[in-house]
Structures are given as C-alpha cells and as structure tokens.
Amino acid sequence: MKKIIALLVSTLLLVSCFTIGAGAASAQSGDIDGDGDINSSDARLVLRYSVGLEKLNEEQIENADVNKDGAVNSADARMVLRGSVGLENTAAFGLNGSQIFNSGHYTMSSNAVDENGISFVRAQTKDSFYVEATMPLDLSSNGIEVVGKPVSIGMLSVAGKVYWVLPAVNAFLLLDDTISGEMGIDSSIFDDLIPALEGSASQAPDSIEILEMDGQEVIRYTYKNENGTASVHDMVNGTLICIRTLDENGVETAAMEVDSISGTVPAWQCTEPSTYSTGEAGMLAFMLQFAALAELNLADFM
Q1: CB neighbours of 263 closer than 8 A, spacing ≥ 6?
Q2: Which of 62, 148, 248, 295 could form a disulfide with 137 if both were Cys (CB 3.0 to 4.6 A apart)?
Q3: Are residues 154 and 280 in the same domain?
C-alpha cells in the first residue's frame, strides 16, 4: 500500500507546485446595460447583438465578450445568463485564461508534459484547494506485473482538513493522524497543497513576449516570484494553453498543457464533504473501492 500512496502523493504534489498571483477582474464585464447588475437583460442584449438585432457601443461590445475569445456570440450570452443565476463566477468575466488562473478562483483541466498520459484537475478558491490525477497505474516490481485500470483520485484541502477523494464513487477519506501514521507518511507534506494565495506572483506580468510557435502567435506572460522562481503562461487567441514553472536559475521544473480553465468551481471541490470515512476501517474501505475501480486485488499493493 505504501508504494501506491507514495506514487499518488508525488503525482498530486507535482500539479500543486504551480504558483498563482492575485488577479483583478473587471467590474463591468457582463454588465452590458450599465445598471450595476448582471442579469437576464444583459444576456438578452448579448444574444440580440450576436445575431444582428441590437447595436452596442465599443465599451458594451468589450463587456459582452465575457470569455475573451475576441467574438461576441451565444457562448457569451449563455455565460452571462448562467452568471445571473449564480451558475458562473461573474468575477471571472472578461478575464483571459492567465488572469483566471491568477485570480485564485478557478477549475483547470490539464495534462503533464512528458509524464506519459497523466491528466489533472485542479480547483482553487480563497478557502480551498483540490487536485485530482488520472494516470496509468503500474505497480509492477521484482518481475511481478501489476497493472491496473487508470483511476481518478484526488485530494481536497478545506477548513484545515485534508481528504483523499475517489470522484467516481463520491468517496472521501479524512487524512487524520491515525491514517497518516498507518500510511507511513508525514501529513505536513500536504501543506504544499495550499499555495500562498497572496502575492506568490505579481498581479501584472513582469514581462510579455510575442512568439511564433507551430505557425501560431503565442503571447507569453512571465510572473516572477519573491523566491526567484517564475511562472510562465503561454496564450493563443486569449486561451491559456500551457503553464510552466522555472526555478531561480530559469530552469523548467514542471509544465502543464492546459485543456480548459473556468472561473467556476463545483461545490464538491471546495466544500467539506457531508459524509466521509475515518480511521483504519475507513482507510481499508477506501482502498478496497480504489482497488475495485482499478480492477486490482488489494493484495497486489499491500
């Protein structure tokens, strides 16, 4: 079991290392009629403009492009409507992918560069941090082949507690001192899962470069951290495509190809679970669920 725990911990910590800054959203984005509120009237204006039934001035057009893809269409109208009823984070309206990440309130799906098929979900708010990995499961050793089906497993930190999570079966395991001791790990390592939420990168990029890569124009934002490290964001047409971290010598230490990023975080990824397992019995039940999802015998990794 310690082998699988070590694999999961190292993989989850990999994606937690990407630092954030303290971004700022435009207060007007999504508020098309300028009444200080984002509601169905704004969504209607966006939709009518997108089909040529409404005229908007330059400022309104800028505010209507809430997903910052350079066009005003039904996708923007849908986001405004969802935002008006609390289904979208309106604070992220008008932000590009890099700014959403730096805001500290987002959900991001990504793939690790050069990590052989490992994909991640990372969600963050000012009060919580969630990271999830899906990876090929190979526990083979000493000539014995033990290969399991890829399983998504996550860790949620909220309200001063850390939980292991199996999203496929909505299972949570509280990582208390008993379980940490049984697993043979120091629970303090999970402090690294909570990035500094204030000033780990500057609010505005320290440098902006325009590059050409694979025939595309790439805008590269570099954010320098106080400890000498840096976070590099590559953007194409307003879409965040890659995040890299550099050490104090400018050497790349990790890289993520970004599939998608949103300013909305699902409730289960940022709130305490209503039900969860605890203690040795809870840990065994959790690992049995994991083994079943991976189509492994628990004895294979005890």
Answers
A1: 88, 89, 91, 92, 93, 95, 100, 103, 105, 106
A2: 148
A3: yes
Q: From its phi and psi, is residue 187 left (phi > 0), alpha (psi between -120 and 50) or beta?
A: alpha
Q: 242 and 178 in one domain?
A: no
| 177-234: pLDDT as tens digits | 777 776 666 666 555 555 443 333 335 788 889 998 888 899 998 888 777 888 899 9
pLDDT digits (tens, 9 = 90+) for 140-190: 555 555 566 888 888 898 888 889 899 999 999 998 777 777 666 666 655
Query: Same domain for 273 and 237?
Result: no
The answer to whether the predicted template modeling score (pTM) of the entire model surpasses 0.85 is: no
Which amino acid is residue 300, in one-letter code?
A: D
- Tell whether 130 and 276 lie within a shared domain: yes
| C-alpha to C-alpha distance for 203 and 75, rounded to whole angstroms | 28
Do 17 and 166 fall into the same domain?
A: yes
- The answer to whether residues 188 and 109 belong to one domain is yes
